[in-house]
Amino acid sequence: METTRPLLQVDAVTLAFGGVRALSGVSFSVQPGSITAVIGPNGAGKTSLFNTISGFYRPTEGSIRFKGQEITRIPAPQRARMGLGRSFQNIALFRGMTVLDNIKLGRHAHLKTNVFDALFYLGRARREEAALRRDIEERIIDFLEIDHIRHAPVSALSYGLQKRVEMARALAMQPEILMLDEPVAGMNREETEDMARFILDVRAEWGVTVLMVEHDMGMVMDLSDHVVVLNFGQVIAQGVPAVVQADPEVTRAYLGSGNVDELRAKLQAASRPRAATTGAA
Q1: Is 237 helix (H, G, I), strand (E, B) or coil?
Q2: Helix (H) or strand (E) holding 37
Q3: What are the φ/ψ torsions at residue 94 (nearest 5 degrees)?
Q4: Contacts of 62 (CB under 8 A, 6+ apart)
Q5: From the centroid of its chain, how far is CA 185?
Q6: How many whole angstroms from its chain centre is CA 277?
């Protein structure tokens, strides 16, 4: 039976800062057209992994392959041109600029206009600007339902809309893999449901593969095809959501015990004194 070659392959990646290992022998793959989630407790190494894949950090050991090509030593801007687009855990938009201008910056890595053409706004620059604006306005802005704020300054937007604009800028990079670092962090339920819908639609309608770091376990289990669990910089489990969710090591990493019944008993015991106190009052 023929197997599909992974779009992204991370092999035994280790990342150290001085004597501290942020990642240790991390290996996993991302299949074309999939939604893969990387989860783990705070400080598990998730964002360090994202920064290593996108080229902001260079691993101490191991390799990263994209579409079969070794990219471990390739700089971040070149990886973006190759098809790795990402958002950030902390919103990295230019707050004094409009939504449209922020999104247009995402296409910068693909523009071929030289300095002379850009300075005098000659033929190539005009054509690229027109094509860029058309793609952003007719596809991305419409897709993410942000037409009503296209000319608004980012600083005037709610947090949820800023996260949506950041996703739009990442899509403007024309990614084959869209890397989303905590896309629904800090959002209310309605905003979370909207973002989940956009993530599913970008895979279904645009054929974009998604790799995301996320803490919302309900969203992770509902959307993901494959889940990778990190703890202290190491992969402790990976597989389909149902298998990962039932793994005792995952429970232990999040809750401190592999015995869910034991944890439930502890929580019930902890609630009894408060109930007794309320009754006495």
Answers
A1: strand
A2: strand 35-39
A3: -90, 105
A4: 10, 11, 12, 13, 14, 25, 26, 27, 72
A5: 11
A6: 45
pTM of the full predicted structure? 0.81
Helix (H, G, I), strand (E, B) or coil at 74: coil
For residue 99, give the DSSP letter: H
Could you give the domains of the chain?
A: 1-83+175-246 (3.40.50.300), 93-173 (no CATH)
Q: Quick: pLDDT tens for 54-113.
A: 999 999 999 999 999 999 999 998 999 899 998 876 667 888 889 988 888 876 554 444
What is the pLDDT averaged over residues 183-194? Answer: 91
Q: pLDDT at residue 128 above 90?
A: no
Of the candidates 208, 154, 216, 156, the residue with the CA atom closest to the CA atom of residue 182: 216
Please tell me the distance from the alpha carbon of residue 27 to that of residue 238, in angstroms, as a whole number.
10
State the pLDDT confidence band at 139, using cuts at 50, 70 and 90: confident
Angle, CA 172 vertex, CA 160 and CA 27 arms, to 5° = 85
Residues 118-125: contacts with CB under 8 Å, at least 24 apart: none
Angle at 175 between CA 181 and CA 114, to 5 degrees: 115
Strands 61-66 and 69-70: antiparallel
**Residues in the chain, overall count:** 281
pLDDT higher than 60, residue 127:
yes
